[in-house]
Each structure stands twice: as C-alpha cells, then as structure tokens.
Amino acid sequence: MSLSAYKKTIKATETPRAIERRILSQMNLRLGAHQSEYDATEAGGARLGILAGPLREALNDNVRLWLEFKADLSRPGNTLPPELRAGLLSLAIFVERQTSLVLSGQGTVKALMDVNAPLIAALQTQGSEAA
C-alpha cells in the first residue's frame, strides 16, 4: 500500500477526537525534544539561541493548533457544553501568552506541554469509551 493510500485510510477511519489526540501528542513530542534544554537555561540570550533551531517551529505549530481550536470553539455551531468551551478558550489564550513568553526567552516550554497532556489523556479516554 502506498503512503498516500495509507494516509487516506487513516483519514477515513480516524475520528476527529483521535486526530486531535494524535496531533497534540505529536506537538508534545516535538516540544519535549527541546524542553529540558530550553527550560534549564537561564532566561535571556542563551534561550534565544536554542530558539534558532527546531523548537521555534514546534512552538509556532503548537500555537497555530491552539488558534484553530480557539476559532472552532468560538463558532456558534460548536456543540461542546458552554463551560467546557469557556475552559478550552481560556487554555487557548494561555497558550498564546505562554508561547509569546517562550519566544522572547522567558517562560517555560513545560507549561505548554502541561496544557496539552491532560487533553491528550482526555481524548484517549473518549476514544476508548467510544470503542
């Protein structure tokens, strides 16, 4: 089976929640590859040097994902309960602010990973219950 056929099969069989879980897991793997080095380095210029590598792209991709979540959560047709939507919107705003801090050499990457981790677990639980 070709790679493109495999990808089509995944898209056809994966639930939206499974896709969200997979993407969030990939984000945490990418962020985690650089988290220790960045977070252990004192704030300032040395951190900016670390950001010159793949961490910057991982941060940008993570915040873009959260911006997509935020847009979806803000749509009138979103069927999530209002309290859950409000909580997730608050997390999206936190991710935007924390990412800005990290990109300026402040904050921690772990804080971003700590936001993604419980969602990954919750989406895993939802997927297990649906099976």
Features:
131 residues, mainly alpha, 6 helices
Helix content: over 70%
Helix and strand content put the structural class at mainly alpha
Approximately what portion of the residues adopt beta-strand conformation? under 5%
Low-confidence stretches: none
What composes the largest sheet? none
Order of helices and strands: HHHHHH
Radius of gyration: 16 Å
Task: Note the total helix count.
Answer: 6
> What shape does the CA trace take?
globular
Overall pLDDT, averaged? Answer: 90
Strand runs, count: 0
**Span of the ends, CA to CA:** 26 Å
Give an overview of the whole structure.
The two termini are 26 Å apart. The chain is built from six helices and no strands. The chain has 131 residues and is mainly α. Helix 2 packs across helix 4, helix 2 runs antiparallel to helix 6 and helix 5 runs antiparallel to helix 6.
